[in-house]
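# step 3/5: fold
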Amino acid sequence: MWVKLSTINPKRPQQSGFTIVELLIVIVVIGILAAITIAAFNGVQKKAQQSSAQSAVSQANKKVLAYAAQNSDQYPSSLEAAGITNTDGMQYSYNNDISPRTYGITAVVGSSSYYVSNLVTQPTAGGYAGHAQNGIATIKNLHTNPRATTASGFATQTPTGSTAAVVQGTGPNGDAMFTVITAAAGQLRMQFKSGTLSVQPGETYQISYWLRSSTAVTSANVEVQFSTGWVKFPTSNITANLSRYNALITVPAGVTAINNLQVLTDTSVPSGAKFEITDIMVTAGSTLYTFADGTSTNWAWDGQANNSTSTGIPL
C-alpha cells in the first residue's frame, strides 16, 4: 500500500541586512572620523614644521651674531662663512655698506617659515623682505630702474628731436614716469631699458609696463635687442589713456642677455603726442605678475635701490 507524502516546504529564515539609510549613516560617520583624523594629523605636522623652522633660524642667528662680534660688526657674506653647514631651506641677506648694517635670515620648512633680522631678534612667523615664505617661492624683477626714478636706461630714438624728461608723481602708484613729447609725426621708438639683463637661452620671459598716451596708436610692439639683433614682439594697440601692456618673449638659443628694450610702433604717431612709461617688470616664465620691485611689501633690492634687480614673493 502506497502512502503519498506531501512535500513539506519549510519557511526560509528571513535574511537581515543594512538598509540604505543605515549605510548612508555609516558612510557619513566614517567620513567625519576621517576628517577629524586628517585635521589632527595636519595640525601636528604644521606644529612640527613651525618648531623646526624656529629652531633652525634661531641657531643660524646665533652663529651670524657671533661672527659679527668677532669681525668688527661685519655680517658674514654667507651662512657658510658663519659656520652653518646645513643651509637647506635657509635664506640669508645682508648689507654691510649702510648704517646701521642690516641682515635677515629666513628658514622655510614645508609651508611654514620664520625669520630674524637686525631689527627682529626673536623668530617670527613670515619672512625677511625678499625671501620666500610660507611655501611661496620668490620671483625676480630683472629691470633695474622700474619706477623711472631717473632717466637712466630711458631715451627716445624717434621721432628725432622729441623732448624727454622724468616727471615725478604721475604714475599709477604715484611713481615717476619717463615722459616723451614727439617733435614730429613718425614712428615712435621709446627706449625703456638700456644695459644688460641676464636671461637664460630658450626661456620665456614676461615684459610688462604702464603707459599713458595722449593718442591711440595701432600696431604696437615691444622690441628687444639680443646679441643676435633686434626682435619685435607684438603687444596690445596703444589706447589714449593709462593702461598696462605686456609682451611674452622667447630668448633665442645661445643668447644670455637682453641689451635694450623699447616700445616700437609700426604706424606713425602725430606731432606733439605725449607718451609716459613706468612700473616695468621683466620676469621669467609666462605668468603676468602684479608690478613689484624693491620698495614693495616683502620685496628687496638685490643691490642699490632703484638701480638693481629686485626679489620678492608675488603680490
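# step 4/5: annotate
Residues 20-70 form the longest helix (51 residues).
# step 5/5: archive (pending)
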